[in-house]
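Troubleshooting entry. The earlier prediction with zinc ion gave an output that would not parse, so I re-checked the input for stray whitespace and re-submitted. Clean input:
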Amino acid sequence: MKIALNSVVAMDYELRIGEDDDVIDSSDDGSFVFLIGHGNVIPGLEEALLGRGAGEEIQVSIPPEKGYGIRDDGKMIGLPRSNLPPDFVVEIGLPLELEDEKGHSFPVWIAGTHGDDVVLDGNHPLAGETLKFSVKLLSVRVATEEELSHGHVHGPDGHHHH
Ligand code: ZN
């Protein structure tokens, strides 16, 4: 079958970025399994997979707009150290969750320090990057009703409920 909305796809991949094509992420043991059409992977990757089938190998270069977005310097936040626990260690690249005024949590990444502030970056670390995926499609199946209602894949290789 061909990949379509609500397909469950298993694939191996390598993800490269930058002029040197550094491999920053990969999976080669069939453990990366996800549901198409539910925001589980970036839009550009879903687009590249639609209509393809098991056994195909795909090379795709995804612009930031269809990946993790354009970098927005307006998303840099300075947080006074006094707002953080005394034992807080600034570890660049570490993700944190912040809450907005409405109580919605959103992810930020520690970018560094500036004076007495810890600088947090609301841009995804891969924002602004063109993502070069090499994909090998392993299998394609139809999602179960339960998977569709949850919006994610269930075992053996997908999501497990605890
Ligand atoms: Zn579930």
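This one parsed fine. The radius of gyration is 19 Å.
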